[in-house]
Amino acid sequence: ANQDLIGALSGIEIIIEALRSHSNVDKVQSAACGALGNLAHDHDENKARIIELGGIELVIRALRAFGPSDEVQNWGCAALRHLTHGSHEGRRRTAAGGGTEVVLVSMQAHPTQPMVQGGGCALLGHLAHECVEDRIRVIGAGALPAI
Q: Residue 43 and which of 4, 50, 82, 104 are 20 to 30 A apart at CA?
């Protein structure tokens, strides 16, 4: 319902533009990551649009830029979790963009943040799901101690 309406009214494009235009504002980054994650959750059309517009890369950039921010890390990890669930392209772009390593750093730096830990574990599971090479990459990046 709301996911459909926001997607139809160019809400995804507006959120993506906010991530691009306000890359130095942590509150914008955390809110935009949260919005993208919510729009992608169980909604394949929104997920595909977010991925097509470079949303994964922008979320990874936000995670890198705001390592100390609990809010950005919480919502960024949650967004990547939803953008990779059931999406080969989402998993491919996350792995190619260094998402595995960024999320592992976040999990290590924010051990008491349930959204970072839960989102990170789910993301690592999604990334390791598809093939043996992906599993080896996730394990090689140091995922086992983190989970």
A: 104
